[in-house]
Amino acid sequence: MDAVELTRQLIAMETINPPGNERDCAHFLGELMAAAGFTVSYHEFAEARTTVVAKIGGDGEQARKPLGFAGHIDTVPLGTREWSVDPFGGEIADGKLYGRGVTDMKAGIACFAVAGIECAEALGAGAGAVLIMAAGEETGCEGSLHLAQTEGAIGEVGALVVAEPSYNIPRVGHKGALWMEMSSTGKTAHGSMPWEGDNALYKASRAVGKLEDFDFNVAPHAFLGGNSINVGTMHAGQNVNSVPDSAKFRVDVRTIPGMDHGGIRKTLAGYLGEDVADVAPFVDVGGVWTDPDHPWVQRVFDLVAPHLGERPEVGALPFFTDASALTPAYGGVPTLILGPGDTHMAHQTDEFCMVERIPQSVAMYNDIIADWLAG
Questions:
Q1: What pLDDT sits at residue 337?
Q2: Model confidence band, residue 314 (pLDDT cutoffs 50, 70, 90)
Q3: Hey, which CATH number is domain 176-285, 3.40.109.10, 3.10.129.10, 3.20.20.80, 3.30.70.360?
Q4: What residue segments make up the domains of the chain, in order of their start?
Q5: Topology (CATH) of 3-174+287-374
Q6: What is the dihedral of CA 239, 240, 243, 246, to 10 degrees?
Q7: DSSP annotation of 103
Q8: Contact residues for 149 (Cβ-Cβ < 8 A; gap 6+)
Q9: Which of 39, 89, 201, 207 is found 20 to 30 A from 327 (Cα to Cα)?
Q10: Distances from the Cα of 365 to the Cα of 110, 249, 359, angstroms
Q11: Lateral strand order in the sheet of 278-285
């Protein structure tokens, strides 16, 4: 099976989230894996929000647990800028494969699916593999969180590869995300008599101004830097000639591994004081970090070096992945983010992935699988 062509087929399946409709794509992938001898199961956290899990081998008699691969099949919306190519056409030009989700991360999905199919016989006779192709990652890992809470769904793995865009350079961790909606309340009044009211927008504005100067007072991570905070949206009022009695704004906090998100919420609530009435999280996923000196990590660095032309240096990523949900569910197994996508093209207009990295990624995954099976 050709991974480039499979990527093009996946691009043609519109899985934009929101609203999210991954069912057809999940079943398409599941049927491919079942035909190769994998045992396939489907899991929905909402209508048509389907995650597929494909398992093979690993009967418990081997010294090692199965090897895990994971990624997501949903994509972000197209954006407001006009595309110069059909976002679902899978066009190839100048060595680039274009399409919404090609880099984040349908090329990665295609690559580990193809590697799993090519290695199916060896995996079935050996330690085995678990392949997770999840719904709902872009809006907070809902699919993987649901999977992790479903008894028996994810099985066991001894290590995990997440095929998010990394230019085929293995990364040992990423930040977490705490997204919160903060609200301010007031009292409405006629716009000609504002002194009769209590303007909630003024309160929210004061709070937002304070957030610009907020200091987490946390030592930076050696590879991920410090925590960050960004106010992304603000909404208040219903009409210009009334004093707004409510205001809401949404805050995006990115955290280094090991941070206590509950503690951050309490700190922010205290820091903002009476101007903010409520701090409600709507995405809460932790960071992930694997010791770069872990033997398996070092082994993978050795395996990918011939493909890259040099041994990779230790690095990490600023965005979250399904590892936020899956790595803890698997008991903190060593985890690497390794995929063919161009990191800087994620969520961009005219999103692309360099074509040459797709077969390169399959070759890397094949080597990692063979090495895992060899013990």
A1: 98
A2: very high
A3: 3.30.70.360
A4: 3-174+287-374, 176-285
A5: Aminopeptidase (3.40.630)
A6: 50
A7: I
A8: none
A9: 39
A10: 11, 43, 10
A11: 228-236, 246-255, 176-185, 278-285
